Amino acid sequence: MKKAIAMILAAVMLFALTSFALAEENKVLTIVAWDANTTGYLTAQKEAYEASHPGVTIEYIDVSSQDYDTKVAAMLAGGDTSDIYMVKDIPALLNWYEAGYCLNLNDYMKKANYDVSGFVGMESNYAMNGEQIALPFRSDFEILFYNKDLFDAAGEPYPTNDMSWEEYKAKALKLADPTKDIYGTHYHTWLSTAVNYTVADGVNTLVDGEYSDLAYFYQIIQDLEDAGACMAFSEISAAGLHYSGAFGNGNIAMMPMGYWYVATLISNIKDGSYKVQNWGLASMPTKEDVKAGSTFGNLTGVMINKASANQDLAWDYVAWLCGEEGAKVTASVGNRPAWVSEGVADVMSAIDGFPTDEGSKAALLPTYVAIEIPGTALSSQISSILGEEHTAIMTREITIEEGIANMNERVQELLEK
To answer: Exposure of 77 by Cβ count < 10 A (0-12 exposed, 13-18 middle, 19+ buried)?
Structure first.
């Protein structure tokens, strides 16, 4: 009897120890994100990481996209201990950093000898005072869409990944055929699709208060408008024409736009709502002094909360998510990861409906991606000023020279306050 009791006690102790060990292994990683229940790449990332890291469960804390920055600021100020916060925009991240909420990743990156080459310079936008306070995992950079059928009909070679702006302009002029309602290119009404290419040199920015470099791009657009090679800004604005439907109509040869349009294009061609059928991608054109493949874009990143009790695990997830392995998962559901590599390009180009030509696949490998508007305390105000003057220039209310002079004067006054 005593022997049986001893065996039972031993079994109970073993079970208790095993249960304790399992409890130690089962860890929950909390990630604050927006639209967590409707964003496909978040589901894919969670499933892939949990599958490759047994014992770890990811739980998303969903915050509405519209109120994300405001609610997150309140959460962090209230002492929230969620492990990871997704970064929607840089100005908000700057506020978190200044308030002391961001974990400095330098030691983790140094210990892991973490490779940042695949970010092609984008990680620098999340560095403050020598501290890496976040890393990017998604980037929708500007790329050139083109209609292969229109190029074939005109006997014009497709855009290349090392095309100059002058070559681009020449193609747009050649492809345009007003008698058939065909345009050589198309510009949406945003400032970004018109002139933000100036930041692709890694020197110019849109927050420095000097905008003479924008004149080159404004002149190209106005020349193309005057030649009937693209729709006029005022016409697009009056009609409320969306860029997606414009290119989808099949009568536009080229269109600069963010990579996010790929998913829409593929989907709408499949369901028959677009007339365009055969399309391709090319790197954005560059000026002579800018390396081919350079472009601009926006970032989505991840920040580790300094108040997290799971910082080591949080780093493991961030390193995985932002590196090549996580990038392939993000790419597998049609989203553009921040990490640039041949392996990631293979995954992106394998999606059903993506162009099969090598040039389009190569366009997925930018050599440099500048941030569209760097995060500063004055970024939103500067954006408003530039947007106002942009509209005045594009509607021809003022000349290019007058508009740029206004930009310089108004932003300088703001910077000097």
So the answer is: exposed
pTM: 0.86
**Contacts of range 170-179, beta carbons closer than 8 Å, 24 or more positions apart:** 171/253, 171/254, 172/224, 172/229, 172/230, 172/253, 172/254, 173/224, 173/227, 173/229, 175/150, 175/151, 175/229, 175/253, 175/254, 176/227, 176/228, 176/229, 176/230, 176/253, 178/228
How many helical (H) and strand (E) elements, i.e. helices and strands, does the chain have?
A: 18, 10
pLDDT tens for the chain, 417 residues: list them. 444 444 433 443 443 333 333 334 689 999 999 989 888 899 999 999 999 999 999 999 999 888 899 999 999 999 999 999 999 988 899 999 999 999 999 999 999 999 999 999 999 999 999 999 999 999 999 999 999 999 999 999 999 999 999 999 999 999 999 999 999 999 999 999 999 999 999 999 999 999 999 999 999 999 999 999 999 999 999 999 999 899 999 999 999 999 999 988 999 999 999 999 999 999 999 999 999 999 999 999 999 999 999 999 999 999 999 999 999 999 998 899 999 999 999 999 999 999 999 999 999 999 999 988 887 778 889 999 999 999 999 999 999 999 999 999 999 999 998
Domains and CATH numbers, the chain: 2-139+300-349 (3.40.190.10), 141-296+357-416 (3.40.190.10)
- Residue 141: count other Cβ atoms within 10 Å of its Cβ: 27
Exposure b/e, 206-231, CB count within 10 A at least 16 = b = bbebebebbbebbebbbebbeeebbb
**Distance in angstroms (rounded) separating the CA atoms of residues 188 and 192:** 9
